[in-house]
Write a structure and sequence with these properties.
The protein is mostly helical and about 180 residues long. It has a single domain, classed as Orthogonal Bundle (Globin-like), CATH 1.10.490.10. Helix content is about 50%, strand content about 0%. Helix 4 crosses helix 6. About 5% of the residues have low confidence.
């Protein structure tokens, strides 16, 4: 059958030809982004993976991982930090629509790497990871308060908390937008 004739027949058979409105989403297949079935993370564009992206050099002191409870303790702190931040009305909007599985993993890797607890950091550099988020100093202040609370809950010695915060503080220049 002639392809033009076939197209005309199909056009006549559509509800639009009868005066009905058809939603575009009904006419085309909408592809919904789905997380990886193994990791639970959404795909991201490729980027160079290097420990330099962590934003700070690791401690040379092998006492820091112990003070933070090793990798298990670091994971508890980073998970609690994310939970506190999601529930914090001052900054909760920042986390909406974000890949929380990836955030938890890369935040754990970053802290684990910086604390010299035997991890590599596979996330983006700080500037790229926070680009277009519009972060302000007040957002970072709230995040730091949540981190302090998470560390206090895990009974991390105050001096060790301050040492980690001192390593993280220079990253402010890379993540602040305003």
């Amino acid at each position: 059958m002639n392809p033009i004739f076939m197209s005309l027949l199909l056009l006549q058979a559509t509800p639009e030809a009868e005066g009905e409105t058809v939603e575009l989403s009904e006419q085309i297949e909408i592809i919904e982004e789905k997380p990886d079935p193994v990791t639970g993370e959404f795909a991201v564009d490729p980027y160079p993976q290097t420990n330099d992206n962590a934003g700070a050099k690791p401690f040379s002191d092998n006492n820091m991982p112990t003070q933070f409870g090793g990798q298990d303790g670091i994971r508890k702190i980073t998970n609690r930090l994310v939970d506190l931040s999601i529930d914090d009305p001052r900054i909760s909007e920042i986390f909406k629509g974000q890949d929380m599985v990836r955030l938890r993993r890369t935040l754990f890797e970053q802290f684990c790497y910086i604390l010299a607890a035997g991890c590599d950091y596979t996330g983006r550099d700080m500037r790229s990871a926070h680009a277009d988020m519009g972060l302000e100093r007040s957002d970072l202040n709230a995040l730091v308060e949540n981190l302090q609370k998470a560390m206090a809950e895990q009974k991390i010695p105050f001096a060790a908390q301050n040492r980690l915060l001192a390593k993280l503080a220079p990253m402010e220049r890379a993540v602040l937008q305003k």
